[in-house]
Amino acid sequence: MKMKESQFLLIKEQLKKLTSKECFYKQKLEGVNVDQIQSQEDFEKLPFTWKGDLREAYPLGLMTEPEEKIVRIHSSSGTTGTPVIIPYTQQDVDDWAFMFKRCYEMAGITNMDRIQITPGYGLWTAGIGFQLGAERLGAMTVPMGPGNTDKQLRMMMDMKSTVLCATSSYALLLAEEIAKRGIGDKICLKKGVIGSERWGDKMRQRIANELGVDLYDIYGLTEVYGPGIAINCQAQGAMHYWDDFIYLEIVDPKTGEVLPDGEVGEIVITTLRKQGAPLIRYRTHDLSRIVPGECPCGSPFPRIDTLIGRTDDMVKVKGVNIFPSQIEELLTVINGASSEYQVMVDHLMGKDVLTLFVETVPGVNRYALEIEIQTQFKGRIGLTPVVKLVDMGELPRSEKKSTRVFDNRY
Amino acid sequence: MKMKESQFLLIKEQLKKLTSKECFYKQKLEGVNVDQIQSQEDFEKLPFTWKGDLREAYPLGLMTEPEEKIVRIHSSSGTTGTPVIIPYTQQDVDDWAFMFKRCYEMAGITNMDRIQITPGYGLWTAGIGFQLGAERLGAMTVPMGPGNTDKQLRMMMDMKSTVLCATSSYALLLAEEIAKRGIGDKICLKKGVIGSERWGDKMRQRIANELGVDLYDIYGLTEVYGPGIAINCQAQGAMHYWDDFIYLEIVDPKTGEVLPDGEVGEIVITTLRKQGAPLIRYRTHDLSRIVPGECPCGSPFPRIDTLIGRTDDMVKVKGVNIFPSQIEELLTVINGASSEYQVMVDHLMGKDVLTLFVETVPGVNRYALEIEIQTQFKGRIGLTPVVKLVDMGELPRSEKKSTRVFDNRY
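^ inputs. structure came back:
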């Protein structure tokens, strides 16, 4: 996608600022002459920024504004290593709320909605992001935070919440619980804003049907504000991102080469206005593609496709690359299988074995279903799995992002 | 305390507004002619508002602004019954942050401090109140939320947090943990801002000593914004409250009569600027007194004493009224006893029995200590308890407000 003139100017200004004082990027961009960056092509020669760079900067190495301008930090969970800490100025906090408000508006949410917020607060960017954006919109927030399903449902009914903000996994849990308790007619939800992780159409449809809502994927990551930098519109299918705040590239995950619009690759983000911790060409590990052309909704903001997966949740088994999204798509076409699954990859007696656990609807012929899943898996993905069917609800539901693929070989 | 002219005008304006449209107070004040309220004495004839009134208004009966102006609700925990829901407009949220900023400033905290926030977020007012106030000040917030002591301590060290916001109970837990791990020299804390519940001087001193910090009591309640309406200054000893936002009376808990400055009674609050859910003469159940005279710190804001207890945590045993504060004071003078205690009141074989559990320091002569506590208790409070000594750390620490008195008779 062609870089806009306005984006180029913001990037140049930022690069000048970053290379003129002691900070993370002064080191990172050592040897780069900013004056010589005259075009998008020049920009694309700049080095990528990696999550590992951010980890090395722990705790506050990314901070590019003086202490007195920083009002907050957020942090990625750090379950996979040293956490990453992102400092925010007041302007960053305000810009984020502004973008988040725009997300709600894109989803047709207004100041007459009541927005129940179930993601967590604190170091995680989710809860407070959803809240301050909704407050900026002037909607009534019902700030629940995670867990306590009884209380969630009680407040959802008593407050007549019209919008649910949640991870897909927690939205599913709530939908199932509402069905189980037979309280669907007391629920006033109209829309769900679901933190974008990779989730399949089948799961999406189950949540939409059981809650009777329209669902909107909202995208973001702690390193770049948090959720709220993109959301799908009412035409559905793809997410508009705010190209006045971020510059987005899609690159080949292996070569780093920028890909043409429409091709799937890794999302790379450059922030245009961030103060506390600007990022240049940050590798998100999220896989998507630019959706070319104009959106039927009429919005001028460009689009990326629903996330296809992450570069790091691909597993390679017997030479075959497998993405969770492929398994989700497979399950969509199989009657009797639910959307919930788990994959275990093990090395047993000298061989790699992929075991696929799938939740099934009651009363299904399990033997026939196993055979069908095996056959379809082999046909579509190129490998024969061991299939284990389990009852609905047996696989874990998570309040945060779900891990569905476990590679036990290493 | 004499009502200021500016307070009177704000109250009159508010009363006129509240009685001119359908809302909670239009009903509550039926028959009151606002034009006839000409003086403080007239105001003092208005009926009190009780927590029960607020519960009956569940869920949104208190809301006095139209839906589109409400941006948030908070709620009291509701462990003792139907929760109370308080709606906030954007101005309420801003006013609260403004008052909270003033609290930090009163405690000598600046935009160069790093403020670690350990109370919870969500429906509870604590976490987000501490955070938005700190952000308004321009300090760097480290938004932890409750629990996960390992991570709290790691962030406290890595972020070099200088201010700890916590309940007294959680501050104690962290202080003990720091001592146990011998990491005191890696802790940069200078001040603690402690959510005001009733806590004794001994506990205060232990926290102050072990953390090496100055402690500030911050006061507030969900029904009236949340924490941040009063805090003690660097002269210590009493809390300044913001009389440009609240009008505060001290009344006899039994008769409701307004008491002279200096006398202990129940705090009654009238909000002066609140929009979402204004309150007129709200009975807080908190016991304190107006501290007469001027504060050596020079602040013009009036003062209330450290909370003495709550009208509802008094227990009556064998005709004797006992407040937790009396037990805390008692333990202050007893060598070998820590600040931590628990009281169980039971009805056994036709008699009321008060059992006092006390944590003791190691190596103490337990028999002698038991006798001493019994004797002192009888002498000061007028009743002989059963004393049970336990080791340090055996009694529960809580992240929220501690309950130390359990009346098992009913």
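Residues 2 and 409 of chain A are 42 Å apart (CA to CA). Chain A has two domains: 89-310, 315-407.
thumbs up if we can close this ticket
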